[in-house]
């Protein structure tokens, strides 16, 4: 017998690099897929693999009980769906467009207002990782929708549900990306510094990658201190010791913009000025939490 959860028809709105990968994965898994893209001509690849190309958003939305959006940013979701909002009733909207937590919450409220169930997904993968176990997608929003759709969601990547607050997946996604972008920016800053002595970025990367990789082993220990809230414990490198003024100065001496490392130093300085110089480097976490509180 046909298991409905394993045979759900799916519509994918947005056939950019990621939307195409999602549609292809569903097709390869034997699903019936309808696709739509704002700019015509991008559906060819999916159609060649068996997708049905809809001539309009309305046709696409009404073709399936599950509608996936994989568009550029939040405004493009509204631009695409608002004119056909009345067609969403009784369907499940799975948004895989990157949004802020509040945008995800707004979308959940908007979808509910039009009688649709809503699940928000945050893709922690590049298109090539779709259909691999290394790819991860975080979800939040409707638990019922998540449970019903899990066999479909698992076609794309390892799925994790993070709660009924629709903004949680997006928050986790953007927090992960914050760490990643700052790591890359740190690398670019270091590469710019060594470039002044003629070292190529590739040569620097060969040294930086294993070093950074080894440093990530420190994260769990730092996390314990942050979670415990006590930055005075033994074995922690003090803020006075961690003062990075010399690093900022070295960057300036080489004629390299110290902005990335100066931002870290600003957090350190704020805690030292507040009298916490003897506490551990982890104390800068408190500098970050002060903003907006
Ligand atoms: N690609 C990746 O590695 C990342 C991994 C993590 C998650 N992201 C997010 O996925 C969303 C889509 O990303 P993408 O890689 O598919 O992006 P593009 O290839 O640039 O395609 C963008 C699609 O969005 C359509 N689009 C843009 N603006 C509008 C609009 N106003 N109305 C309707 N559709 C719109 C665009 O259509 P077109 O330009 O071909 O007409 C593409 O289909 C994104 O949120 C990432 O953050 C991917």
TrEMBL record:
It holds the Pfam family NAD_binding_2. One of its GO terms (cellular component) is chromatin. Keywords: Oxidoreductase. It comes from the Bacteria. Transmembrane segments: none annotated. One of its GO terms (biological process) is transcription elongation-coupled chromatin remodeling. One of its GO terms (molecular function) is NADP binding. Residues 165-289 form the NADPH-dependent reductive aminase-like C-terminal domain. Residues 10-159 form the 6-phosphogluconate dehydrogenase NADP-binding domain. PANTHER family: CYTOKINE-LIKE NUCLEAR FACTOR N-PAC, OXIDOREDUCTASE GLYR1-RELATED. Belongs to the HIBADH-related family. This is NAD(P)-dependent oxidoreductase. It comes from Streptomyces mexicanus.
């Amino acid at each position: 017998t046909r298991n409905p959860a394993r045979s759900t028809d799916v519509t994918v709105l947005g056939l950019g690099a990621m939307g195409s990968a999602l549609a292809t994965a569903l097709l390869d898994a034997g699903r019936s897929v309808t696709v739509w893209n704002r700019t015509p001509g991008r559906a060819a690849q999916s159609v060649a693999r068996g997708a049905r190309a809809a001539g309009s958003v309305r046709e696409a939305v009404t073709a399936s009980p599950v509608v996936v959006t994989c568009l550029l940013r939040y405004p493009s979701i509204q631009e695409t769906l608002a004119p056909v909002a009345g067609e969403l009733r009784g369907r499940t909207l799975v948004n895989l467009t990157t949004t802020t937590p509040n945008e995800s919450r707004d979308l959940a409220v908007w979808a509910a207002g039009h009688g649709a169930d809503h699940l928000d997904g945050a893709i922690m993968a590049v298109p090539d990782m779709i259909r691999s176990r290394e790819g991860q997608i975080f979800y939040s929003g409707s638990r019922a929708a998540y449970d019903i759709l899990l066999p479909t969601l698992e076609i794309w990547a390892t799925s994790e549900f993070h709660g009924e607050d629709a903004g949680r997946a997006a928050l986790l996604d953007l927090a992960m990306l914050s760490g990643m972008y700052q790591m890359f920016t740190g690398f670019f800053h270091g590469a710019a510094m060594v470039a002044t002595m003629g070292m190529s970025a590739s040569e620097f990367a060969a040294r930086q990658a294993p070093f950074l990789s080894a440093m990530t082993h420190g994260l769990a220990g730092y996390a314990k201190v942050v979670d415990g809230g006590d930055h005075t414990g033994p074995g922690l490198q003090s803020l006075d010791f961690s003062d990075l003024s010399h690093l900022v100065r070295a960057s300036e001496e080489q004629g390299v913009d110290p902005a990335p490392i100066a931002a870290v130093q600003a957090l350190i300085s704020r805690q030292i000025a507040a009298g916490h110089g003897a506490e551990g480097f982890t104390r800068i976490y408190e500098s970050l939490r002060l903003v907006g509180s």
